[in-house]
Design a protein that fits this description.
Elements lengths: L15 H6 L3 H10 L11 H8 L2 H9 L3 H12 L6 H9 L5 H16 L3 E2 L6 E2 L1 H7 L15 H4 L5 H10 L8 H13 L1 H9 L3 H10 L5 E3 L6 H8 L4 E4 L2 E3 L2 H7 L17 E4 L2 H25 L15 H11 L3 H13 L3 E3 L7 E3 L1 H7 L3 H14 L29 H13 L5 E3 L1 H11 L11 H16 L2 E2 L2 E2 L1 H7 L34 H15 L11 E3 L3 E4 L5 H10 L1 E4 L4 E4 L2 H9 L4 H11 L6 H13 L4 E3 L3 E4 L3 H9 L9 E4 L2 E4 L3 H10 L5 E2 L34 H19 L19 H14 L3 E6 L5 E12 L2 E6 L4 E6 L3 E6 L6
Parallel strand pairs: 16-20
Antiparallel strand pairs: 1-2, 3-5, 4-5, 6-9, 7-8, 10-11, 12-13, 13-15, 14-15, 16-17, 17-19, 18-19, 21-22, 21-25, 22-23, 23-24
């Protein structure tokens, strides 16, 4: 490619602000999307944008979002000369052997660093942003991830001139008149591959062993006051340099020679492949995932039904107690960590919340009743959509927070802002695999660590790794995946493209066959709220035919049980849940009829004839005679005893029954005494009396003051309307196109105002300072500009106190206002004169 002549080549930028000024709107927009913190709030001009891009917090955030190879590129620039050329950077990354994979990947990595304003300048003058260099460059307090130490110049900064001359002479170099030239000569020696090879050829073998131990870092070592001969040989020639009493360092130039030019021991230009451990037929995966989805819905419904009349109490510090979580786990028949996940999922979906009462408890929300009426697939999509976006992390339950307090389910401290991004990324990696392919979990974690490497060896808590492990297990629980592979409805939930086709020769002979995958997964877009709603609806449509149809019948058996061979229609399930107790769950649910369960149905207002008719209508088998006898027997005794308010009383037409109660020792706690042959008075309240008599085996019924039997129905306790908890954002949100366009216009306008040339003597003394003129001078200059049509530079403070610089062409001045064409906003505006801090005329050649 032809090179531009020196005259045609644009001048190299002298600062990051100048480099940003040379970008087009597309490039600036890419920067603001990748680093949204830079427009929170919108900078006034490009100089302020560059300043913000160089702040420590923003640079750290940007570095933490680089993949491993791009971060390695930035680390190599931090140990290169400032500025460095592209060839120097390539040498540090690819080494003397010129690794072709590194050479191919380096332009892309450098492009990312340029796009994110971490590197600026052309290929002949690459500069790492100063803050990034300070963070990544090696120092005794913060060793470089490259394992390199300081340069010869940095290591000899505090060394005496005489000692430097001794090192130069011993290394075989001519002595010099000053330390600067001596250090330069030593540096040239260490960077000359041929002369260094000759020097090291003379080194004793044990001295070379010392260098081998230090070459890949850490580069620091300890020596005594009288170093051993192998160390003395290295110290005399500057191959090791003292940095502090008893401490020596391997100079960077020496290490790079020993490494054959590599800044990193193992550059990783290619992302690690996601390995596939098993491949199943897509129909098997989808069917398994649908079964899990049905189980997920049943589990959430069972949880909410258990809390329908008011759930566990809210701890003073918030959340569930350990005892209540254990009870919930027993009720759901799942381990406690899984119970915590279901509870947190229902909370994230807005189905449960604290009721806000004085004695605060958890309860279902009104949204639960709406959710329960939806078709099964839509209920599933709402749960999974809430899971994808939730920042609350159930896997942390039972752990400890920073203050060593136990983290409880539904309690504070469970939000992790990275959770949604990790879940989406894990599923995206699965979406890039062939249909039915189940990945090795460790290979997924390895890939994620490459995409977001841990910064610093001191970070032992790999939160992203744990989030990824939880995402894989939770996706299986929810039915997003089946047998470890992403299902068709799970793929639709992500808005992912069709899965890669699998070649016939790759078809496995069994589910355990391994199929290595070395391609990059197809990128999966991040969806907006509207796009996610469309994707969720598409997932629900794919799941619908895979879910079992609810049944309208059960199979009654002679052992007082009923078998539901599948999911039941809601009215049938609700009534049967009152009339019988669930004995076992699974592919088929077994219900058992007991005297207590039948009495529960009678207490809820059902009569014996109602129960007989119900069973006859919904049983595919004849109603067994023992069940008929059970219902009739309980119904005959139901209400035979009547309990009312005295404190409480019991009345019965059969005085023998009352005599039996009085003679029973278990009735002593009730404080009963006979008032009449058919009436007993009690010292306890009616509710306690009812419970006591039922515990003794009787079937009493409550009655009103008029003597009518009171029908007790289950009371569904609901919270007031509640909104689902908002996810905790992971930094500022990515700007949409509208906000981005407005921000770019504002930044360009402010930059135009701040860089427009002014007439000599009118510009402020300090760059960025607003012009200052008196009110009379401001008014006179404005009026003159109206007559001449000239543009002016003004400083303006709006009603919120925000200051800005503008270039305007005054059209009319009257009533304390100036109407002008604002060149920075590209529209006509009116400004109060009292808010204009000053005015200055533009130079004649101002564009």
């Amino acid at each position: 490619m032809d090179r531009m002549s020196t005259e045609d080549r644009p001048a190299a930028p002298r600062s990051l602000a100048e480099a940003l000024r040379g970008r087009d709107d597309v490039s600036l927009g890419a920067l603001l999307r990748s680093r949204p913190d830079l427009i929170t709030p919108v900078p006034t001009d490009l100089t302020q944008l560059a300043t913000r891009a160089g702040t420590r917090a923003s640079v750290v955030r940007a570095l933490e979002r680089l993949d491993r190879f791009t971060l390695q590129t930035a680390q190599a620039l931090a140990v290169a000369a400032d500025p460095a050329t592209y060839d120097e950077l390539l040498g540090l990354m690819a080494g003397d052997d010129a690794d072709p994979a590194v050479a191919q990947a380096l332009p892309h990595a450098l492009g990312i660093l340029r796009e994110q304003a971490l590197v600026w300048g052309g290929d002949d003058r690459l500069r790492l942003v100063r803050t990034a260099r300070e963070l990544l460059a090696p120092s005794p307090q913060h060793p470089s991830p490259t394992g390199l130490g300081p340069t010869v110049q940095e290591a000899t900064a505090g060394m005496s001139p005489g000692r430097i001359q001794e090192i130069v002479t011993t290394a075989g170099l001519p002595s010099t008149h000053d330390s600067v030239s001596a250090v330069t000569a030593l540096t040239e020696l260490f960077t000359d591959r041929g002369r260094m090879a000759a020097l090291l050829a003379e080194a004793p073998a044990d001295s070379l062993d010392v260098l081998e131990r230090l070459v890949w870092g850490p580069p620091y070592g300890q020596v005594t006051a009288e170093p051993a001969p192998r160390l003395r040989w290295l110290l005399d020639r500057g191959l090791l340099l003292p940095t502090a009493p008893g401490t020596v360092v391997l100079p960077r130039e020496v290490a790079l020679h020993l490494r054959r030019g590599l800044a990193h021991r193992a550059p990783e230009p290619v992302p690690p492949a996601v390995e596939v451990t098993a491949v199943h037929r897509p129909q098997v995966v989808d069917g398994t995932a649908a079964g899990q989805a049905y189980t997920a819905l049943a589990t959430v419904e069972e949880l909410l039904k258990d809390w329908d009349e008011g759930g566990p109490a809210v701890l003073r510090a918030g959340g569930l107690s350990v005892r209540d979580l254990k009870r919930t786990a027993v009720a759901l028949d799942v381990p406690e960590p899984v119970a915590a996940f279901w509870v947190e999922l229902a909370y994230a979906a807005g189905l449960i919340a604290p009721d806000g009462e004085a004695d605060e408890r958890y309860a279902a929300t009104p949204a639960y009743d709406e959710w329960a009426e939806l078709p099964a697939a839509e209920r599933w999509s709402r749960l999974v959509t809430a899971w994808l976006a939730a920042t609350r992390t159930a896997g942390l339950v039972g752990g400890r927070d920073a203050k060593d307090r136990t983290l409880s389910a539904l309690g504070p401290g469970l939000d992790r802002s990275a959770a949604p991004e990790v879940r989406h990324r894990v599923l995206a990696l699965l979406a890039g695999l062939p249909q039915g392919a189940a990945p090795a979990a460790e290979s997924v974690l390895t890939r994620l660590r490459w995409e977001r490497p841990l910064r610093g060896v001191q970070r032992e808590d790999d939160l992203r790794g744990r989030l990824a492990e939880w995402a894989l297990s939770e996706a299986e629980l929810l039915g997003v995946t089946g047998r470890g592979a992403l299902s068709a409805h799970g793929r639709a939930l992500l808005g992912a493209p069709a899965a890669p086709a699998r070649s016939p020769e790759a078809e496995p002979s069994g589910p355990g066959d391994k199929l290595p995958v070395h391609h990059r997964p197809t990128p999966v877009p991040t969806l907006s709220a509207t796009e996610q709603a469309v994707a969720s609806a598409a997932a629900a449509r794919l799941l619908t035919p895979l879910l079992p149809e609810p049944l309208d019948h059960v199979l009654l058996q002679a052992d007082l049980t009923a078998v539901a061979p599948g999911p039941l229609q809601r009215p049938l399930a609700d009534v049967l849940g009152v009339l019988a107790d669930v004995e076992s769950k699974g592919g088929a649910t077994v219900y058992r009829f007991t005297p207590g369960s039948v009495r529960r149905a009678l207490d809820a207002g059902q009569s014996a004839s109602d129960l007989h008719a119900f069973l006859a209508a919904h049983s595919r088998t004849p109603v067994p005679q023992p069940l008929t006898y059970l219902i009739d027997d309980v119904a005959r005794r139901h209400g035979h005893l009547r309990v009312g308010a005295a404190s409480a009383y019991v009345r019965c037409d059969d005085d023998a029954v009352l005599g039996e109660i009085l003679a029973d020792k278990r009735a002593a706690a009730l404080g009963l005494r006979r008032l009449a042959p058919t009436v007993l008075a009690a010292q306890t309240d009616p509710a306690g009396l009812l419970e006591g008599l039922r515990a003794m085996g009787f079937a009493p019924a409550a009655e009103s003051a008029e003597g009518d039997v009171l029908i007790t129905r289950a009371h569904a306790h609901r919270t007031p309307p509640r909104t689902a908890p908002e996810p905790v954002p992971d930094g500022p949100p990515v700007p949409d196109d509208t906000l981005l366009a407005a921000a770019l216009r504002a930044i360009r306008a402010g930059d135009l105002a701040s860089t427009t040339p002014r007439k000599p003597g009118t510009a402020p003394a300090v760059d960025g300072e607003l012009p200052r003129t008196g009110s009379a001078e401001t008014l006179a200059t404005m009026q003159a500009a109206v007559l001449t049509g000239e543009a002016l530079w003004i400083g303006y403070v709006n009603a919120e106190g925000a200051a800005s610089q503008r270039v305007i062409a005054p059209i009319r001045v009257e009533g304390g206002f100036v109407t002008a064409y604002d060149h920075t906003a590209d529209e006509v505006r009116t400004y109060p004169l009292h808010r204009i801090t000053g005015v200055a005329e533009l130079a004649d050649d101002a564009g």
